[in-house]
């Protein structure tokens, strides 16, 4: 079988993304990595970190080098200084994403892995940007995507993502939640190779609504939807109280958890896997994984940033690419 070729975007140039990407030679994963970013910036960061790596120009279809890393050059708009954000490079960050997306859609890359970006500085640069997940959906013309994080022996998908808490209940509708569950089920089967996924579904309210005394979303929306989808053959358990859902006995017998909102499920997963978690975007026509941490500007260029999350993201992207090809 051919070795998967992965596009690795190097993220915010003032952050730790370039540092982590340059350490992929240590990962020992059976993939071919193509780093997407400014070659001169990456070479300078490698020197700063004391990494004597040969950096080769990437050429589609050419054989992989035997040493070092391949760079698909995307030029910076302004010089990058570790730890110092510059809105002038907002367009550069998006250009690295566009190159990876286009390569995946064309079949040039088997998957893309993203290093962290800084949403605030991209917006300061004049581009409305709410995150990788939303940007990937727009660029691939995907009407609905699902954010899922993996780590600590868990997979946790989100029914809603980056919303103010007061807006979450209105976003939990039969149509939206049904789409999320179908996407989650389909990608667990196709991309993760799980023949009959079992999903634990959290309730929205404390105690999953306490029979309507603490909220009626479970009674009016979640329970009827789960019953209908079970009738179609999906293995769905819930809605369950979130405060007791994440116990080892329940998790041992499921393939994923569906949380209703961002901070309902992710604190548990990040407690169990911080520094080695992975973000996966489900529902896309391409494979995308990412680190589960931010740009860590204070660590950029210091050599103290731990590459574990990026290594795990590359490992999972490789597995998903192999599954998709089989």
Automatic annotation (TrEMBL):
It catalyses: 4-(phosphooxy)-L-threonine + NAD(+) = 3-amino-2-oxopropyl phosphate + CO2 + NADH. It is an enzyme of class 1 (oxidoreductase). A divalent metal cation binds at residues 162, 207, 262. Its main location: cytoplasm. Pathway: Cofactor biosynthesis; pyridoxine 5'-phosphate biosynthesis; pyridoxine 5'-phosphate from D-erythrose 4-phosphate: step 4/5. GO terms for cellular component: cytoplasm. Its cofactor is Zn(2+); Mg(2+); Co(2+). Keywords: Cobalt, Cytoplasm, Magnesium, Metal-binding, NAD, NADP, Oxidoreductase, Pyridoxine biosynthesis, Zinc. SUPFAM superfamilies: Isocitrate/Isopropylmalate dehydrogenase-like. Substrate binds at residues 132-133, 270, 279, 288. GO terms for molecular function: 4-hydroxythreonine-4-phosphate dehydrogenase activity; cobalt ion binding; magnesium ion binding; NAD binding; zinc ion binding. It is found in: Cytoplasm. It holds the Pfam family PdxA. This is 4-hydroxythreonine-4-phosphate dehydrogenase. The gene is pdxA.
């Amino acid at each position: 079988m051919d070795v998967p070729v992965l596009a690795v975007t190097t993220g915010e140039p003032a952050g730790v993304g370039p540092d982590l990407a340059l350490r992929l030679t240590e990962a020992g994963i059976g993939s071919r990595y193509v780093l997407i970013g400014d070659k001169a910036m990456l070479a300078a960061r490698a020197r700063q970190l004391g990494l004597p790596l040969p950096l080769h120009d990437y050429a589609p279809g050419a054989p992989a080098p035997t040493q070092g890393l391949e760079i698909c050059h995307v030029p910076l708009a302004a010089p990058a200084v570790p730890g110092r954000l510059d809105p002038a490079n907002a367009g550069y960050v998006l250009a690295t994403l566009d190159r990876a997306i286009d390569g995946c859609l064309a079949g040039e890359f088997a998957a893309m892995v993203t290093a962290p970006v800084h949403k605030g500085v991209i917006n300061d640069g004049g581009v409305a940007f709410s995150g990788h997940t939303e940007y990937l959906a727009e660029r691939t013309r995907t009407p609905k995507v699902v954010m899922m994080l993996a780590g600590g022996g868990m997979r946790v998908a989100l029914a809603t993502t980056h919303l103010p808490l007061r807006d979450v209940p209105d976003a939990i509708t039969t149509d939206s939640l049904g789409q999320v569950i179908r996407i989650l089920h389909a990608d667990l089967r196709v991309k993760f190779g799980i023949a009959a996924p079992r999903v634990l579904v959290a309730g929205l309210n404390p105690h999953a609504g306490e029979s309507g005394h603490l909220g009626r979303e479970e009674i009016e929306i979640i329970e009827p939807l789960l019953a209908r989808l079970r009738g179609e053959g999906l293995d769905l358990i819930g809605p369950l109280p979130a405060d007791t859902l994440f116990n080892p006995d329940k998790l041992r017998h499921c393939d994923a958890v569906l949380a209703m909102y961002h901070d309902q499920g992710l604190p548990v997963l990040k407690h169990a896997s911080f520094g080695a978690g992975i973000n996966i975007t489900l529902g896309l026509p391409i494979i995308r994984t990412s680190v589960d941490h931010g740009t860590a500007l204070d660590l950029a260029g210091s050599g103290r940033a731990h590459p574990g999350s990026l290594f795990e993201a590359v490992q999972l992207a490789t597995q998903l690419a192999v599954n998709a090809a089989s």
